[in-house]
Amino acid sequence: MPDLRPSLVAGIALATATTLATPALADGTLHFYNWSDYIAEDTIPNFEAQTGIDVTYDVYDSNEVLEAKLLAGNTGYDLVVPTGIFMERQVKAGVYQPLDKDKIPNLKTLNPRLMEYLAQLDPGNEHAAIYMWGTTGIGMNVDMVKARLGEDGPLDSYDMFFKPENLAKLADCGVHVLDAPTELLPIALHYLGLDPSSGNREDFRKVEELLMPIRPYITKFHSSEYVNALANGDICLAIGWSGDVLQAADRAAEADNGVTVTYVIPKEGTLLWFDTLAIPTDAPNPDAAHQMINYLLEPEVTASISNYVAYANANDTSKPFLDEEVLNDPRIYPADDVLDRLFPDRASTQAVDRLRTRLWSKFKTGI
């Protein structure tokens, strides 16, 4: 990601779900800006039918795209879905308006442990509600990877990616990496046994020494193309988001194309992230935005989204409505011992942002 200055924009949100205690209906149109492939097919139509509010729904595929629009101002959006790492600084910059919690009764049942993580980013959980959450890890074409690394290869470890002797064996079948330094660099620090939020120059030097030898074996940096690439068998490895990889697995299975995709939370642990619902300060229709947040946190609604996109939601009351294959999948809802190995990223200082940006540029260009 580019520099995360205090003026950057984002949000995360505190969410919880209970029955949809409907606030007074808002008028007009809701302008909703969300990640691509990140909502159930019937979510928006059902909201429009229930409320009479028209929804203009636009999508993006990176926090940087959202950030650029928000920094430019006057986006016209009422509701956006920033990732937690951006929210911490951007809330301080005053980009988002505080939530009127009386209008969002479904905030009351969010998982307390996840809310504690969120409160570290947004004290008092004043500005955002959790939309979905997940991990960043390894997506792989099982057959291709095993053919190159062997049945006894490090298939449950970041050794598969960070050790050049392993990644070199996968270069011929394609390797994609999220174009997201705020995700991969903390993961690299953690892999080295260092503080994922470190701003120490010597730590970044060690990360550079880790990353540069594997650069020749990476095919592409992109934050969405790896989904179809995995599903179609065009690549064999991706560092990506949990739900995206599981969507790729579903697409491959539906296509019956002989491709088997799986997602791995590496044994070393990895990054835990939250995508949140936040209302820009200059939102034209904040009443409609509050109503949409409450609707999205309704147990059946948020469960239907989780069932569709294969990402976990934070609403414990949604569990009776989750498909068993989603609820019981430890890659989506990790067990407590796995949760203990996860770490949330934190916003950093401008000095650390510059270190990250400089290193990421060098890593991507290979120079």
What order do the helices and strands come in, and which of them pair?
Blueprint: E1 29-35, H1 43-51, E2 54-60, H2 63-72, E3 79-80, H3 84-92, H4 112-121, E4 129-141, H5 142-149, H6 159-162, H7 164-167, E5 175-177, H8 181-191, H9 201-211, E6 220-221, H10 225-231, E7 237-241, H11 242-255, E8 261-264, E9 271-277, H12 286-296, H13 299-309, H14 324-327, H15 336-339, E10 343-344, H16 350-365
Parallel strand pairs: 1-2, 1-3, 5-6, 5-7, 9-10
Antiparallel strand pairs: 4-7, 4-8, 4-9
Helix pairs in contact: 9-16, 10-11
Give your account of this protein's structure.
This protein is an alpha/beta fold and 367 residues long. It contains 16 helices and ten strands. The strands form two sheets. Strands 4, 5, 6, 7, 8, 9 and 10 form a seven-stranded mixed sheet that branches. The protein has a three-stranded parallel sheet with strand order 2-1-3. Helix 9 runs parallel beside helix 16 (350-365) and helix 10 (225-231) runs parallel beside helix 11. The longest helix has 16 residues, at 350-365. 53% of the residues are buried. Mean pLDDT is 90; it is low at 1-25. This is Putrescine-binding periplasmic protein. It is found in: Periplasm. Keywords: Periplasm, Signal, Transport.
